[in-house]
Amino acid sequence: MASTVLVTGGAGYIGSHTVLQLLLGGYKAVVVDNLDNSSQISLKRVQELAGDHGSNLVFHKIDLRDKPALEKLFASEKFDSVIHFAGLKAVGESVQKPLLYYDNNLIGTITLLEVMVAHGCKNLVFSSSATVYGWPKVVPCTEESPISAMNPYGRTKLFIEEICRDIYQSDKSWKIILLRYFNPVGAHSSGYIGEDPRGIPNNLMPFVQQVAVGRRPALTVFGTDYGTKDGTGVRDYIHVVDLADGHIAALKKLSDPSVGCEVYNLGTGKGTSVLEMVSSFEKVSGKKIPLEMADRRPGDAEIVYASTEKAERELNWKAKYGIDEMCRDQWNWASKNPYGYEPPAALEK
Fold first, then answer.
1. 153 annotated active-site
2. pLDDT tens per residue, range 35-94
3. Which tens digits make up the pLDDT trace of 133-176?
4. What is the pLDDT of residues 214-233, one digit of tens each?
5. Secondary structure in 3-state letters for the chain
6. Rounded to the nearest 5 degrees, what angle is found at the Cα of 37, between the Cα atoms of 331 and 111?
7. Could you say which of 27, 153, 181, 226 is catalytic?
8. Exposure string over 284-311, b if 16+ CB within 10 A, otherwise e
């Protein structure tokens, strides 16, 4: 019998790539997503990419805060484990609308955990974030580095981690893995699924891709006076397919009797500056990316990258792709889908 995994937020960027890897790995994936910041088209494409395994994907449009809908789902299907991606993730928006973030991310997660307990499903992989390291004084960040958050989005990730630790302390039959991801970029090599943010992108690469396809005139680089090799911020970029594979490794780890509530960084262990990333993208795409230099953004850290030794050792997982492959796959997706999954009506005629 294939293991059945509930994937919350599975229509999103990281979710859809992970669902594909789950299907290819022989799992049955049941996706719940409220489609607030994602498109169901991603899952139709995942089904196609999965070939014969595509029939093992089921989708329900559910908001995690809708407890009766979640109860009904858990009553109708037995889940072996849950991968929890669902949540709002724009730092700037979280500063403007903190209550929206606390309501969506915290209440959604608490409701999910309550329903899991009620139905005896206590295996969880949670999508946390390197944002919980705040402004690290020492890099690379290890899983033991001090944690703090600089904005409401980061705090929701921090609070959910703490909730998970508390639940485990209260009931040792839980098995929980918290994955702190660094900066996911790239797309599936087919160019058929990728990142499609609504509105103005918050992250570097979707912004770069929108400039490359002519949707935006220039890339704004925030902060050119950091103490880094070229003055721009340094981050640990990780290919989304490597990240998806990290979730499969975490799921397998849940069957290890020694697992309680564990934390793993998922990154490459290397820092890359904004300008290095842009230069790599220009090289693989043949497109010039016009730049506009701007002041630092409040809340942005200077240098953040991961120590990945723990994941390599305990999950038997290591990132395979470098920034040239990330940029190549990002451009392949962008050039085939310049307007993402749902092009403006005017372009469809």
1. yes
2. 999 999 999 999 999 999 999 999 999 999 999 999 999 999 999 999 999 999 998 899
3. 999 999 999 999 999 998 999 999 999 999 999 999 999 999 99
4. 999 999 999 999 999 999 99
5. CCCEEEEECCCCHHHHHHHHHHHHCCCEEEEEECCCCCCCHHHHHHHHHCHHHHHHEEEEECCCCCHHHHHHHHHHCCCCEEEECCCCCCHHHHHHCHHHHHHHHHHHHHHHHHHHHHCCCCEEEEEEEHHHHCCCCCCCECCCCCCCCCCHHHHHHHHHHHHHHHHHHHCCCCEEEEEEECEEECCCCCCCCCCCCCCCCCCHHHHHHHHHCCCCCCEEEECCCCCCCCCCCEECEEEHHHHHHHHHHHHHHCCCCCCCEEEEEECCCCCEEHHHHHHHHHHHHCCCCCEEEECCCCCCCCEECECCHHHHHHCCCCCCCCHHHHHHHHHHHHHHCCCCCCCCHHHHC
6. 135
7. 153
8. bbebebebeeeeeeebebebbbbbbebb
- In this structure, the strands spanning 237-239 and 183-185 are parallel
Predicted confidence band at 346 (pLDDT cuts at 50, 70, 90)?
low
Reading the block at residue 294, the tokens are 């701007």
Token pair for residue 145? 């580095």
